[in-house]
Amino acid sequence: MTRTALTAVVLASLAAWAGAQGSTSAADKLRLHRANRALLTDLVGSGVRLAAADQPVTRAEACQQTARAVGLEVRRAAEANDEDRVAELGGHFEVLVRDGLVPALTDADGVVPADSPEGVRLRAVRAGAAADLDATAAALPAADAALRAKLAELRERLK
Amino acid sequence: MTCQSVQARILALPDPRQLPDAFRAHVAACPDCTAYWKQAARLEALVAALPVPPAPAGKKTTFLEDLAAEALVFPKVTTTPSRGWNLPRPSVKALAGLAAALLVGVGVWSATKTVKPVAVVKPPAPRDALLEKVVQRNVALAKARTPNDRLDVLAGLAEELASESRGLALVAGADDMRLVAEWFRTASDGVVEQAGRVPPNALTPDQRRALLARLTDRLAEAGRAAEQAATDSPPHAQPALRSIADTARDGQTKLRALAAQQGA
Q1: Is the separation of the CB atoms in B130 and B158 below 8 Å?
Q2: Cα A51 to Cα A47: distance, rounded to the nearest angstrom
Q3: Are the beta carbons of A51 and B137 separated by less than 8 Å?
Q4: Which stretch of DSSP H or E encloses residue A65?
Q5: Closest CA to B158 of B118, B198, B176, B185
Q6: What whole-number distance in Å separates Cα of residue A143 and Cα of residue B98?
Q7: Domain assignments of chain B as residue spans, ordered by start
Q8: Euclidean distance between CA atoms B109 and A148, whole angstroms
Q9: Distance, CA of B242 to CA of B171 (rounded, Å)
Q10: Binary contact (A47, B142; C-beta < 8 A)
């Protein structure tokens, strides 16, 4: 009797826990796959370019292209008033800039002379990234103040 | 001296109409006790007027003591004046009744109270797990310092794409599946191409051998899983899964050739 009751309680708890995880249904999975197919095509290609980027400047350029692709999708989602998508993609955009692009630029700064041709390319990457951050932050809805603040902080780190 | 004890003594008097001096002052000053005394005196007068034989002496006292013993009327009053407050002690039945009434009251209140509108919490929107993984792979590739690390991350991306194809096979259309197969081909070809571009001095021969063997095994496993999934999937998903298996086999062949070419 006790064992049965305990088993029922454990199963109910597990079911509640699983339900709280926001699991994605098959329909949601397919819908998201179709919504992100162009972006995923870009990001798979970006991954291959990043794997091939064995120089600091080319890595920074590849990072900026990757982040730009996601930033563009954030802006499209914002224009469509798709708040959930803005939040999801905005988070990815932030991660790519914070953990990918900014460190890549920092690494490149340490080894690339500012007045060299690579230095010029690096400045172009920095300027392009700043423009992407500005455009994405400007497109965010008013409710996304937290994300806008994070992007503003990243913008400062690009200087 | 309390009103209760005064009124009990009035009731116990042989003739309430003759008020003793001991509590005359209290009755004179207390409207309640005055009213009680007047009622008792009137009752005594009415009883005396009844056409019945007079009660034996002491009968009333005995009767009141019996009632008091059974707690039906005021408790027996002693002649010693009490000090301080004499609060009545409620009986167990009274307490139980009070508790029951309280419970009923709480129940009625709960049932009839105005229900406040509950704030509806919006459930978290579903997120694209594959997109998240691919973003993380891109970040990892940006951080990877060595060709070895980059190839491992890229092979992991290929594995995730192959896994996605198996997960989508039951719900996605042929076009969706074809696209995932193309992504896998992009990643797999990238693995083979980058494996061939690893600088000669970047790895020792043992490291190179281990790297190529690892990459070959990972592609082989992805291909086997896709081939297996093809046998259990709807017909429209099978070509894409078999395409993934073919791509993986092609990659293995090229990696083995590379290993042979480089003496690894």
Answers
A1: no
A2: 6
A3: no
A4: helix A56-79
A5: B185
A6: 54
A7: 3-48, 129-261
A8: 48
A9: 17
A10: no
